[in-house]
Amino acid sequence: MANIQINELSKSLKEYIESLCISVDEITELINTLSAPSNHNHDDNYYTETEIDSKLSEINGDMSTNISNLQIDINSKAPSNHNHDDVYYTETEINSKLTEINNTINTNVSNLQSGIDSHTHNYAGSSSAGGAANSVKTNLIIKLNGGTTEGTNLFTFNGSTAKTINITPSSIGAAADSHGTHLTLGTGSGNAFRGDYGNTAYNHSQSAHAPSNAQKNSDITKAEIEAKLTGTITSHAHNYAGSSSAGGTANSVNGLTLWTGTQAQYNALASKSDTTLYFIIE
């Protein structure tokens, strides 16, 4: 009986649903669309418990390390109420020491002033303390240009009387500032000549020189040489001019002696002959 009622109820329900124009298949599809599978998860949207626990463990580890480092930094700092009394003088100590120094200076200055105030001995030649010094141990003698006349060119001072000495050029044997025109450097008869120039001229005068009438080799003309060479050379068997043997070196021409050498050798000759032709080889 019960089964008949259930079947009838299902049939009635089906008919009622169909009367709503929604089929069972449509309802099934709607349910499948709006419902998730029984074995679904949300791993793509949320952290799992395992992931959360792992991250909390990392955070706890980092926090422990940071707290440890922070504690090390804190331990290395001085307390806010610390001081350095064992290293530096305090203001009170410095002020005390400065007071001691000032007291010492004031005492020394006072003693020095007392010593100055008690300086009561007489100055040289004075009959009272602090009087003018008017004597010296020995006489002070000033001579002008070896003078012997007191008051003119000889002055003796013993401290008793003031002395005034007028020193003039004439009193010491010096020329007056208007004694005349001074020589100036120059080459005229009324000029002074520089010593270094004179020394150069003297040294030059002591070196070897050619005679005043010596002729430069470059100035000797062919005509002058030919004028000295006379006669005709017919053979080479005879002695050359000035030579004592045939073929010997010719060292004279028509009474003139020939000389050859370098400029240095020429300069070193002690004297030159008017009958010698000097040929300098460059």
Descriptive overview:
The protein has 282 residues and is mainly α. 38% of the residues lie in helices and 7% in strands. Among the domains are: 31 residues, no CATH class; 64 residues, no CATH class. The strands form 2 sheets. Strands 3-4-5 form a 3-stranded mixed sheet. Strands 1-2 form a two-stranded antiparallel sheet. The longest helix is centred in the N-terminal third of the chain and has 27 residues. The radius of gyration is 69 Å and the shape is elongated.
Helix-strand blueprint:
Elements: H1 2-19, H2 24-34, H3 49-75, H4 91-117, E1 140-143, E2 154-157, H5 195-205, H6 222-228, E3 252-253, E4 256-261, H7 263-268, E5 276-280
Parallel strand pairs: 4-5
Antiparallel strand pairs: 1-2, 3-4
Treating each run of at least 4 consecutive H or I residues as one helix, how many helices?
7
Rg of Cα set? 69 Å
Q: Assess the beta-strand content as a share of residues.
A: 5-15%
Question: Overall 3D geometry?
Answer: elongated
- For the report, how would you describe the main beta sheet? 3 strands, mixed
Structural class: mainly alpha
The main sheet orders its strands as 3-4-5
Portion in helices: 25-40%
What is the average per-residue confidence, as pLDDT, rounded to a whole number? 74
Distance between the termini: 166 Å
State the low-pLDDT regions, or none. none
Order of helices and strands: HHHHEEHHEEHE
Total number of beta strands: 5
